[in-house]
Q: What sequence folds into this?
């Protein structure tokens, strides 16, 4: 598998498919449901993204790598049909607005090693390039480090990443081209995505969790419950629970004005790998829109699914007293909380405090054409729900 494919200048389905096939020497992409979304994604690259030359290289490489992953996944399922028998039981998903404490809470939970979390190298390369079942060496950690070394300082500081640290699972869904594109300004593509059924995206996530769990099994490890995290799930809780009906969803809550402004700052740093000039007003408009969609969809999902599927936790509790809410959270998940687990969580909390970013993230909504008043007006339904249902006033 090539980490740096030959870059084509034309963003077409045929060009990307051909590059992926040439890279790994395989032809079977499996279910062709991804082709329609792929075409719309490529159209967005051509018509909306306004990419720099470097951005075009990055975007083409990412599309090819997603498709290379699909090819290798299908090859593994064909060679090892027992992978399809893997059962993904009662996974836990940590979700919430971006910058609402999801990373801190997820990494704290993952300090209890009884959970099965996804490491950065696993979400970047969920399947081995070679046949590790036959004893081939696994090169994925080294390739992941190379990719991390290319990240900008701004994006690394806003969301620190390391090869073996717990990471978000949204990259596993990116192979469907149905996951919202947070890294580029492609509003027409995003509006199209909002009208699509996201269920296939979660079926494909399930397929990748099966293959990741199978890799642990062939190494001799017993399967553990997955503890996963991605803010993007907030928009898709209904299809998530359709595909994973026994899942437990932990939802973080923060003042949306702070979450939105902080997310704008993070995405501004992230988008520099695609474009030379970023319009902060456009960025702010899109971040607020996606935040409102996620919050509104999550409220609708609560009406459609059992109350016991959800655990609500505020940003303040995540930051100021996480260990105090852990017993209630573990009762919700059904996981035992013994002395060894509590000690591991305490150590994890201490490590998390020691590794806080030294940078002061100063964000101002006005830079992005936003104001607290505007954000509160557009999230009023969510704020009223939090006040009446959770008994908390998020905007103070």
A:
């Amino acid at each position: 598998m090539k980490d740096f494919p030959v870059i084509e200048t034309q963003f077409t389905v045929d060009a990307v498919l051909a590059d992926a096939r040439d890279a790994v020497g395989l032809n079977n992409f499996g279910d062709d449901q991804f082709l329609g979304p792929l075409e719309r994604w490529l159209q967005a690259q051509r018509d909306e993204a306004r990419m720099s030359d470097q951005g075009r290289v990055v975007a083409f490489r990412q599309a090819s790598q997603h498709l290379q992953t699909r090819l290798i996944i299908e090859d593994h399922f064909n060679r090892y049909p027992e992978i399809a028998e893997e059962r993904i039981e009662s996974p836990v998903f940590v979700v919430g607005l971006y910058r609402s404490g999801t990373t801190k809470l997820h990494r704290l939970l993952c300090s209890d090693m009884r959970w099965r979390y996804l490491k950065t190298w696993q979400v970047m390369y969920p399947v081995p390039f070679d046949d590790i079942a036959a004893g081939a060496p696994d090169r994925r950690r080294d390739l992941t480090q190379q990719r991390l070394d290319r990240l900008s300082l701004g994006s690394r500081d806003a969301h620190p990443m390391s090869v073996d640290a717990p990471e978000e699972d949204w990259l596993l869904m990116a192979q469907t081209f149905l996951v919202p594109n947070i890294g580029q300004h492609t509003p027409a593509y995003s509006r199209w995505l909002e009208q699509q059924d996201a269920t296939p995206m979660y079926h494909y996530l399930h397929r990748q969790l099966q293959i990741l769990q199978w890799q642990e099994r062939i190494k001799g490890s017993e399967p553990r419950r997955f503890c996963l995290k991605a803010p993007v799930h907030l928009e898709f809780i209904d299809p998530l629970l359709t595909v994973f009906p026994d899942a437990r969803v932990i939802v973080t809550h923060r003042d949306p004005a702070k979450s939105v402004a902080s997310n704008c700052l993070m995405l501004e740093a992230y988008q520099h790998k695609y474009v030379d000039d970023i319009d902060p007003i456009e960025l702010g408009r899109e971040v607020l829109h996606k935040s409102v969609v996620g919050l509104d969809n999550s409220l609708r999902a609560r009406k459609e699914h059992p109350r016991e599927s959800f655990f609500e936790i505020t940003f303040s509790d995540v930051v100021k007293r996480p260990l105090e809410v852990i017993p209630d959270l573990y009762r919700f998940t059904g996981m035992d909380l013994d002395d060894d687990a509590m000690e591991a969580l305490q150590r994890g909390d201490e490590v998390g405090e020691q590794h806080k970013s030294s940078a002061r993230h100063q964000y101002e909504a006005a830079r992005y054409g936003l104001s607290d008043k505007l954000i509160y007006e557009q999230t009023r339904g969510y704020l009223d729900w939090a006040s009446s249902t959770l008994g908390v006033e998020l905007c103070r």
